[in-house]
Amino acid sequence: MNPIIIHSELADIYEKVMAGTRIDESEALRLFQSRDLNAVGYIANAANQRKNGKRATYIVNRYINYSNYCILSCQFCSFSRKKRDNDGFQLSVEAMVDKAREALDLGITELHIVGGLHPSLPFDYYTDMVSRLKSLSPSLELKCFTAIEILHLSWLAKKSVEETLKELKQAGLGSLTGGGAEIFREDVRKQIARGKESAEEYLDVHRTWHSLGGRSTCTMLYGHVETLEDRVDHLKQLRQLQDESRGFTGFVPLAYQPEDNGIPVKHPPTGADSLRTIAVSRLFLDNIDHITAYWVGLGLGLAQVALSYGADDLHGTIIEEHIFHMAGASSPQEQSRASMIKAIREAGRDPVQRNTFYESLEHSDTPAPVEQAAPNHRLSNTLAQ
Hints:
The chain has about 375 residues and is α/β, with parallel strands linked by helices.
């Protein structure tokens, strides 16, 4: 046994994990509370390498936010705007098609599309968007919509969630995003996202999608007003649904961005907190194969370190991200494929380009030449469209 573990208070958890035995909620809380971050990371890294080996993945993708107009007023959100605001935006389907064509020329395999709950766009805007984008390339995967967006669309269409998902799937929807989970505990949701869907509704949307053969990711927004017990409860509910449906492809912990929103936080998530959260997630979510270190919220440097704390994925090239940057994230808007490969190799991992479902793509471990940078869509330009 490694010296890091021999004298650690967490040695029993290490032995349990190495024996392939599931840890319980009390043990997850111990990991969160432990001051021995090295030991927590060591256990998580060992668990990840048993599951995923030395590979670490990335995806060549593009984000498109179709609008930031939203009928909700979540306290933590810096992205949403009302129609009266002068910095709101709404893209036409044709504008989204143009962005997608531009990104396809750069070699993307996935479009990641979310937006606010628009007060007036009709349901056929969304089905037309999906079908038009899917028609650009049969190999293009469309990862679109959060659970609350699906609920909103079902209200628009006056159909059940299942009927709405079936219609979107027929139009070309390939995967649901995991956004909007926040923290599942009701009292926390009331503080940060009053009026948003409940934990039960979030989980039921994903359960329904999984029952239709669909796959999705899941998330947790940490580092605001929640307790460590709240985090464990959140992970427990995700693990329970995964036991039932096996539809989650990966888990993405999201570090709270404290600027420009209505929730004052005295102690936003530190690097150590983020590494610990990723590590505990890897150990507790034993039935979800992949844990993403989301470089947009962490910064690429810390995301590299997270590859030794249980993460096995750095997410994607992204090209244009608004939600975290409007909340104060100072990371770049995009990464090239070459920079993702370099970051993974520097962390001692084998880079593998993946698709939406975390499956390896052929020839993915060969460094790509430096690509021509995608047009730098500044926020002011985007908002003017």
